[in-house]
Amino acid sequence: MTGEPLLTESAKEVPHWLSGLWEAHSSGRRRTTQAGMGTSIPYWDFLGTTMVTSNYIRLTGDVQSQRGAIWNTVGCYLRNWEMQIHFKVHGRGKDLFGDGFAFWYVKEPMQQGEVFGSKDYFSGLAVIMDTYSNHNGPHNHGHPYISAMVNNGSLHYDHDRDGTHTQLSAGCVSKFRNLDHESFISIKYVHDTLTVSTDIDNKQQFKNCFSVSGVKLPVGYFLGVSAATGDLTDNHDIISLKMFDLSTPDDDILEERADIMPSASFFEAPRDHVEDPKPSSLSTGKQVLLLVVGVILICGCVFIGGLFYTKQQEQQRKRFY
Known about the structure:
Mean pLDDT: 80
Distance between the termini: 87 Å
Strand content: 25-35%
Largest sheet: 10 strands, antiparallel
Shape: elongated
Order of helices and strands: EEEEEEEEEEEEEEEEEEEEH
Structural class: mainly beta
């Protein structure tokens, strides 16, 4: 699949209210969000376990039960935009790791919760980079997996189904974890079409992940990125955020978008939900005791059976004397 250049030639410089963390580049066409020293960056708030270093912002470490987020403090009033996230997800886990991170464009920022560190029943858009599969019900994809969800505040993100009953369309598998190089994701919203692309091959080109039309988002919502770990862990590092203004001359005649509800004309068909096996009511000690008793009983049966077999053999030999 042909990739897209990482830099969008038609993109314009973002508005001044984003300039606190964005630093102007010589091209004059973009500003870059770069993690800096200290715990305070103008126009940005941090939440939870987030740690700021000179090279990246670490939302979670490779530690259990962490939640972290970074949020812009001024609403985004662009009708058409692109967010490029430069990131790295890595950790010690070989086969088991998690949970992942998410990009948010929502009405209520700075709300910690159960959905990759942020609030469930949100209003707005989430693009989710899920690194752990719950394997509940039929799945036709692996992980890490990228998907999107639009919510008007009434929908629940179901971790047991990996969010498949509320995702906008089929997402894509993206093996961005534990690479030797860093990765990029592009989230582009233009004329009610959401397009998500990735560069995980270090080739400076984006490859399409998915695109879905009929997505209506209001202006004035807030941008953020959050991540979470549970029993499984990973480092979730944000290296930079790049915001592009993709406005066109036709935008002035479009409908007003300040007060509309977030909506989407298409959702992927729900997949069957299979209830997880109920955990045993027995404690671990009781389970071990039952296992030991079972082994003893089996060994006893084998021993008694051996004695019976030996006695039978002796009786058979006596008949020949």
